[in-house]
Each structure stands twice: as structure tokens, then as C-alpha cells.
């Protein structure tokens, strides 16, 4: 658990330059903490997949579990985490800003009441309709239906966890929410090993692990919520649905759910095209996306989670200077992380894939397919990260329609491109289509940011564009010696039996060279974003040494 205390960010009036600098440094520290927790969670996610493989292999039970978990997990992504955070945090921030304790308690009580009723109804309907739902997926119907019924309560538990996360994030408390997915993965890994002797098959043991993990995600955040001093409970449904705050939440959620549905359908359609493009194409894309999501989870997701409450607070105070500057600093920081990582990954992608995946049935052909997909996925890494940072800028203003519109347009672009390139270019073409559609999404968001006509926004976006070009140029310069070093390293170590020697050692040495050149270039121009990030890291390390 976290020892963080809630910060009161609800004071009115414009912040002084010193306060703005302190707030931005605090935001950077929060993002850093959350990034570490996310990294641990993503690593445990890889261990989770290994656990699943050891329990279920690739047989009928594995297919049944995969389908059964996909259904409630799809609805979690659609209704729980993204939608609740997007709609709830800006609304709750408004209540905190108004400092009306009675109205705030009423809104929280309405939120928990409506959420419980809505999700409870969906869970009950899903469990009852499981035999009919699973028939659409073509896996073993009886066992898949049983597993689906077992795991549908996960949706309810993780929805409560998402609401608690929204409360904590509104107070500037992030560590419990970052720790929650770690607990879920630990439950997924260890609970099946404990209960498998008591279940009919290992898939049911893993289903129990999923539900216990969902419960752990919710309960681990409750003490931190109680420490905020907020108390709330259930109220009558009529009163809950009539609450003005809930009406605002409904208005924000509707377009967000629509946009999230478009994104999820996008993934399903792309997978369908990949399945028809040739054996191994769909799997290689999923492995590549897993690597990309690992990078995005560490940088973009954490920064976006921290940024939304900060921007919501700036909007409530009418502090548009802080709104623009906080957004600009966050985007620069994420570009500083993702552009060099993308360029390096495009050079060393094969070594990354070999080190992480080449084992057993994952042979040379699998390496080649995944490396090609990973190369083209990385061309869109900075755009996807940009989108995940900039979308909260609209959500903070209670504008969920603009990101939804951008998502739908990019979805349409992606589907058209995939239909054109899937057959001739296979996985590489599908990955490139996703990257290009992410660039379209970014362009639309930039267009609407410019239309806000906020003082300094145009200047900030122009500066961000120049900064992106500078980082790209520096990364390409650092890539030159790295590329030539790669040839020599692979000639020396590439034939070794151990992956740590054949791929891991060249990857380490290439990374050191790339980082040395890149950091040297940033130091030569005294890059302010790099100085800010580096200074925050050194101060944090210094405090840890003193303690």
C-alpha cells in the first residue's frame, strides 16, 4: 500500500510561477512512481502468460479459457477503466473545487449506486446468456460457458476498482491504483496453483484466480479512499439517477463508450484480416503489440493517468496558462521517451524478439514475422503515445466527443488500409496501417487543440513539433554508430547457443552506444526537457540515499 496522503489541489485562483513549477515537478514524480509500478505489472503480465501456458498449453481448455476471459475483459475495457475515469474524474474534480461536502457525498453515493446496479445487471445477464454468447466463438461450448459464468463477476469487481481509482486520482494519489494490477497478476499466477487440486480442470482454477485478482484490485484501494475522509453509501436508484453529477457523467460516457467500441472492433477486424493473411500473421502481430504496449504502459499510460486530474483542476480554476504549459511539458516528456525508443527498437527489434520469445515452437520464421510487424508498429509509437497524453486534455474540459471523433476517423482509415495491404504485405502491412491511422488521430487532435484558441496553445504546439523533429534527428544520428556496431556484434556473438549471449549481449552494448550518443547530443544543446526529467530523477535518487 501507499503512504501517500491526498493533496488538496482545489484552491482557486491562478498559480504563481513557483507553484506551477512545483506542481509540474510533483506531476513528474507521480508519473515516475506510476511508471515503476506499471513496469512491474507488465513484467508480471509476461509471467502470467507463462503460467497460463504451463497450465493449459494450446489445447481445447486453453481456447475455452481464452474465449471465456475475452468476453468480460472486453466489457471491462469498454465500460470500466477508460470510460469511468474519463467521465468521473472531471466531474468529481468539479465537486472538490466547489468544496460542498454534502453535494460531493451525494454524488459519490449516486456513483456507487448506479455503478452497482448497472454492472450487476450486466453481470447477471452475461452469466445467464453465457451458453448463447460462447457459440459465436466456435470453441468447446459447455466448458467455455462454465468458465464465462465463473469469470463474469470479474467485470463487477474491476468496475468498483476503477471507481475507487478515479476517486484517488482526483486527489492526486496514484500508487494504490498502480499497485492494484500487480496484485491481480500475482493472484493470476499463484491462486491457480493453490486451488487446482480442488477443481475439475486447471482452466477453472485459473478462472478462480481471475476473480480473486479482481477482488484484490478493488480492496487494495479502499484503505486509501477511506484516508481521504470521504464517506458514501448506497441511495435509492431514483435519487441516484436524478443526481446532476450523474447526468453529466452519463453525457460524457456515451461518446466515450462509442469510441472505445470502435477501437475494440478495430482490433477484432484487424485480427480477422491477419488470420486470413497467412499462418502466423495474427500471432506475430499480437506478440509485437504486447511489446509495444509494454513500452506505452511504462510511459504514456502512466503520464496520461497523472495528467488528467491536473488538467481537470486547471480547468476548474480557469488557469489556462497552467493547462497549456502542463500539457506541453507532458507531451515533450513523452516524446523524449518514445521517439528514441522507437528508433532504437527499429534497429534492434530482431534482438529484442529473440531475447524475449525465441524458445520451443517460436522458431526462426516466428522471429522474422514478429520482427517485421514490430518494426512497423514502432513507426507509430510516438503518435500513439501522443494520443494517450492529449486525449486527457479534452476529457479535462468535459469534452469526450473530440477524442471519440478522432478515434472513429482513425478506425475507418485503419480498416481501409488493412483491407488494401493485408494480403500483399501481410503482418508488416497491417502494422504499418495501424501506425498511419495513429498519425491521422494525432493530426485531428492537433487540429482541434488549435481551434480552442487558448492563449499560447498555437505557440506550444509549434514548439512541440520542432522538438519532435529535433529528437528524431538526434535519434537518427545516434542510430548510425549503433547500426554499424550491430553488424560487428552479431558476427561475434550471433551464433552462440544462449539467447543471453547471441541477442542479449549485443542488445545491451547497442543500447549503451545509442544512449551515450543521444544523451551527449541532448547535453550539448542543454535540452530543457531532458534537464527537467534528469533533475527530477537525480533529486529522487538523492532523497532515497539520505533515507
Which descriptors apply to this entry?
mainly alpha, globular, disordered N terminus, 547 residues
Condensed summary:
This protein is mostly helical and 547 residues long. The chain has helices at 17-56, 60-98, 101-128, 130-134, 141-151, 153-170, 175-195, 202-219, 222-227, 237-242, 244-277, 281-317, 320-357, 364-378, 381-395, 401-451, 457-493, 499-524, 528-546.
Q: What topology emerges from the helices and strands here?
A:
Layout: H1 17-56, H2 60-98, H3 101-128, H4 130-134, H5 141-151, H6 153-170, H7 175-195, H8 202-219, H9 222-227, H10 237-242, H11 244-277, H12 281-317, H13 320-357, H14 364-378, H15 381-395, H16 401-451, H17 457-493, H18 499-524, H19 528-546
Helix pairs in contact: 1-7, 1-12, 2-5, 2-6, 2-8, 2-11, 2-12, 3-6, 5-8, 6-8, 7-8, 11-16, 12-13, 12-14, 12-15, 12-16, 13-14, 13-15, 13-17, 13-18, 14-16, 15-16, 17-18
Shape: globular
Round the Cα radius of gyration to an integer and report it: 24 Å
Terminal-residue CA separation: 19 Å
Strand content: under 5%
Number of helical stretches of at least 4 residues:
19
Count of beta strands: 0
Largest sheet: none
Low-confidence stretches: 1-5, 7-15
Q: Approximately how much helix is present in the residues?
A: over 70%
Oligomer: single chain
Structural class: mainly alpha
Mean pLDDT: 81
Order of helices and strands: HHHHHHHHHHHHHHHHHHH
